[in-house]
Amino acid sequence: MKTHKIDKILIALDYDPTAQNVAETGFSLAKSLGSEIILLHVISDPSLYLSSEHIVVMGFAGQVEIVPGKMDSTDELKKKATLFLDKLKQYLGDISIQTLVKEGDIAESILSVAKDLKIDMLVMGSHGANGVANTGTGSVTEKISQQTSIPLLIVPIKLNK
């Protein structure tokens, strides 16, 4: 049997407070395998970040707050996303972790980064009761699982009801 070395793990994160759990799970797996780690956040629709009063991302060495009116451009959102990933990298305690912020369709961006960086495994969270969140058009996790041959670790996230 031929074994496949997992050299690079891509951990895709959103701003949900459960992102810390997804990152910790992916980080633990990567460390146990001796793999390189890349943290990714995709900005899909800048207006989604500005539609509510504010978004606060708690956990890991502080918080990042996004307040409408202070976000004049996608560049500002990218700066906040970079700060979010940098704080998470600090929390995990590994300066070798790479961070990336992309803009576009979430599933397409994750798949594109995975292909470009020759990723060996993807780690993502899923909010759905059956393993996939139902967004009407299908979840990001579902789309990725249907379009990739890269191993995908789905970290189940329970919603607080």
Give a brief rundown of this model.
With 161 residues, the chain is α/β, with parallel strands linked by helices. 36% of the residues lie in helices and 22% in strands.
Structure description:
With 161 residues, the chain is α/β, with parallel strands linked by helices. It has a single domain, classed as Rossmann fold, CATH 3.40.50.620. Helices cover 36% and strands 22% of the residues. The chain has 5 helices and 7 strands. The strands form 2 sheets. A 5-stranded parallel beta sheet has the order 5-2-1-6-7, sandwiched between helices. β6, α5 and β7 (152-156) form a beta-alpha-beta unit. α4 (106-116) packs across α5 (140-147). The longest helix has 19 residues, at 74-92. The protein is globular and about 50 Å long. The model is unreliable at 52-62 and 129-137 (pLDDT under 50).
CATH topology (level 3) name: Rossmann fold
Query: What CATH first level would be assigned?
Result: Alpha Beta
Count of extended strands: 7
Number of helices: 5
Distance between the ends: 45 Å
| Largest sheet strand order | 5-2-1-6-7
Overall 3D shape:
globular
Question: What is the correct CATH architecture?
Answer: 3-Layer(aba) Sandwich
Mean of all residue-level pLDDT scores: 80
N-to-C order of helices and strands: EHEHEEHEHEHE
Task: Describe the structure using short key phrases.
7 strands; globular; 161 residues; alpha/beta; five-stranded parallel sheet; two-stranded antiparallel ribbon; Rossmann fold
